[in-house]
């Protein structure tokens, strides 16, 4: 099995599966069927079985899936057994909220440093995270061997910052700006546009309403 053969939509559902399996395991449940998973996470059972099939035989016909084994399997795929340090660039309203975010209580993801230009925040510890000046960003990222950055700065400032992040060795960027960013092929940029998501939601609400009138 080649990792790149797995569809992006499947990859995006893996954390959802993993999170629910952790809940089941904590509750002491030992096995689960695709139908039970479907009812809990609102993904149809055929999609779940197809997603799981990309990783080989994970369950047994007539038995279902072993909760602990499946949880550990997806945890390993998602690198949840290893600590991943993340850099946050931009400690504005959204950035400050992300510093408080516990990443669903994951023990494997940690924002270890943040960067900003505001003098009143640089040099402080915010929610346990040190905030450094932007001009020390490349040095600190290299020093801490960080490969992932979250970008929450004004769109017009984003591309020059991305160029510096690439120079620092960053391999993955979660982009909360509205800018269309470019980077070398070995750097993955995943964009989260909250306005687009809300407009899409509004469309579906009105579309479904019109269809059901």
Automatic annotation (TrEMBL):
GO biological process, one term: response to redox state
Compartments, record wording: Cytoplasm
Gene3D superfamilies: NAD(P)-binding Rossmann-like Domain, Winged helix-like DNA-binding domain superfamily/Winged helix DNA-binding domain
SUPFAM superfamilies in UniProt: NAD(P)-binding Rossmann-fold domains, Winged helix' DNA-binding domain
GO molecular function, one term: DNA binding
Residue spans binding DNA: 16-55
Main subcellular location of this protein, as a coarse class: cytoplasm
GO cellular component, one term: cytoplasm
Residues noted as binding NAD(+) in the record, renumbered to the chain: 90-95
InterPro entries: CoA-bd, NAD(P)-bd_dom_sf, Rex_bacilli-type, Rex_DNA-bd_C_dom, Tscrpt_rep_Rex, WH-like_DNA-bd_sf, WH_DNA-bd_sf
Family per similarity comment: Belongs to the transcriptional regulatory Rex family.
Quaternary structure annotation from Swiss-Prot or TrEMBL: Homodimer.
Protein's job: Modulates transcription in response to changes in cellular NADH/NAD(+) redox state.
Protein's UniProt name: Redox-sensing transcriptional repressor Rex
